[in-house]
Specification:
Length: 326
């Protein structure tokens, strides 16, 4: 969820240290990461069939944190130092984990997982628009502005604007789009506050997920009651969503960034909505009109244009993880 929207980093921009020796070809890990993040929206839908949205999010964060804690123990890395760093991580945890994960869980009570996955793909568009305003190094070009406009047309196509958005749940759709907007807000905050941190990715991300879990541990009891039953399939979905879709996926993502660079690694963004749509239709029986895949393709084309550059960025600006959102 961490992080691919193609615009920033879901987690943090410190150097990767303690990376393990690669045992699988990066293409296999890339494909696995695409599948895991693409199936995340299906897992959210299954999880909310048995648990309240906040409970799904809390479970996701808890199991993701446990995976990263285990990795930190294996690699002998501790938590970050300094109250200032922890304060910035608290804000990052809210915008990059607690808020978007919760919004996606609530949105899928009323919208299909396919639509949630496509809304997630708008994150690069939000990020480009916000970064042009708040980051001096991200100046608008004709190509990037055209990509933003094209992406907006794609969103309207997915939602069937010419039909007056008939059949769409406005609240659920707004929540999913709000979740995709939350990621670039968090990325921009991280770039402004933690980009120069000397802590490792693993240490910062482990602390970030720990803080997000603590935030949900406070909020969840206020809005839900303790589950009276523990249905097996939704429980397994939540565990998989946290352990695979959050914890292990982040470790794989950082390994890919270290090996092949963020530009190639962030291409996983463009496979997530395709896999999410295929999974929702094939396994959940969700309906699919022509406007959904056509609109999704337009959104992805617009997102690709917003990420295009006229010349390569200096390495110092590209040392972070790609913008992945799932």
């Amino acid at each position: 969820m961490a992080t691919v929207s193609a615009t920033g980093t879901r987690s943090l921009t410190a150097p990767i240290t303690g990376a393990p020796r690669r045992t699988l070809d990066w293409r296999l890990r890339f494909a696995g990461l695409s599948l895991v993040w693409g199936f995340s929206f299906l897992l959210i839908k299954v999880g909310t069939n048995g648990f309240a949205p906040f409970q799904v999010t809390f479970g996701r964060l808890l199991f993701g944190t446990l995976v990263l804690a285990a990795a930190m123990l294996v690699r002998r890395q501790g938590l970050p130092h300094g109250w200032r760093t922890w304060g910035h991580l608290t804000v990052a945890a809210f915008f990059l984990n607690a808020l978007p994960f919760s919004l996606f869980a609530y949105s899928e009570l009323t919208i299909p997982s396919t639509l949630a996955g496509i809304c997630n793909a708008t994150s690069p568009l939000w990020g480009m628009a916000l970064s042009m305003i708040s980051l001096s190094e991200d100046r608008p070009t004709r190509r990037r502005v055209a990509g933003l406009g094209l992406g907006f047309i794609g969103v309207l196509t997915v939602l069937g604007a010419w039909q007056g958005f008939h059949g769409m749940d406005a609240t659920g759709t707004a929540m999913a789009l709000g979740a995709s907007l939350s990621y670039p807000v968090g990325w921009i905050y991280v770039r402004r506050t933690l980009a120069g941190s000397s802590e490792s990715h693993l240490s910062l991300t482990g602390a970030q997920l720990l803080l997000a879990t603590a935030q949900l541990a406070v909020v969840t009891p206020l809005f839900t009651s303790f589950p009276t039953s523990w249905p097996l399939l939704p429980l397994l979905a939540v565990i998989a969503l946290g352990a695979l879709g959050t914890g292990i996926a982040m470790l794989v993502q950082y390994g890919l960034v270290a090996e092949i660079g963020p530009t190639t690694a962030q291409m996983v963004t463009y496979f997530i909505p395709v896999i999410a749509t295929a999974a929702g239709v094939a396994l959940l029986g969700e309906s699919l009109s022509w406007s959904t895949p056509v609109g999704a393709a337009i959104v992805l084309a617009g997102a690709a244009l917003t990420q295009s550059r006229t010349k390569p960025q200096p390495r110092s600006r590209r040392s972070g993880s790609p913008h992945v959102t799932a």
